[in-house]
Design goal:
15% helix; alpha+beta; globular; 146 residues; 11-stranded mixed sheet
């Protein structure tokens, strides 16, 4: 009888898919959106973003979008995760000040710490933290009682 060579690969792929589904189920429990009031103009990959209220949607530990509250400005953000989350992770956006300009640098969130791939911090940069406030899912509230 000839041994089936596909069986080990089938087991490996099945285990991978099962672990992926389990990790997605656990990730669903965490909020994926945060808001931040950024009091200064800043840059993301050469694009100037004015001071204001922004919404950060964390799609994955390595991908997010940031958009202005009015929806007129939006940027995709790609990250390299630098630290896993702790028990009570601090949520904030880290900006680096270089040559009088602020640059979006890092996000510390419920996913952990992540460095923006389009920006390389220097040791001479000063940093400025801006709080990132979690936005929970909107839950429909019942109308007044009858």
């Amino acid at each position: 009888m000839k041994p089936n060579r596909r069986l080990p690969w089938l087991c490996l792929v099945s285990c991978f898919l099962l672990s992926l589904l389990c990790s997605q189920a656990g990730a669903q429990a965490q909020p994926r959106r945060g808001t931040s009031d950024i009091p200064f103009d800043f840059y993301i990959a050469g694009t100037k973003m004015p001071a204001g209220h922004y919404i950060l949607d964390l799609v994955a530990p390595t991908y997010a979008t940031i958009r202005s509250q009015d929806g007129k400005l939006q940027q995709d953000l790609y990250f390299m995760q630098t630290a896993l989350p702790g028990k009570n992770p601090q949520s904030k956006i880290v900006f680096n000040l270089r040559d009088g300009r602020y640059y979006f640098s890092q996000v510390w969130s419920w996913y952990g710490k992540a460095q923006l791939t389009s920006f390389t911090p220097k040791s001479s940069d000063q940093t400025k933290d801006v709080p990132l406030v979690r936005v929970e899912k909107d839950v429909a509230k019942p109308a007044g009682s009858l």
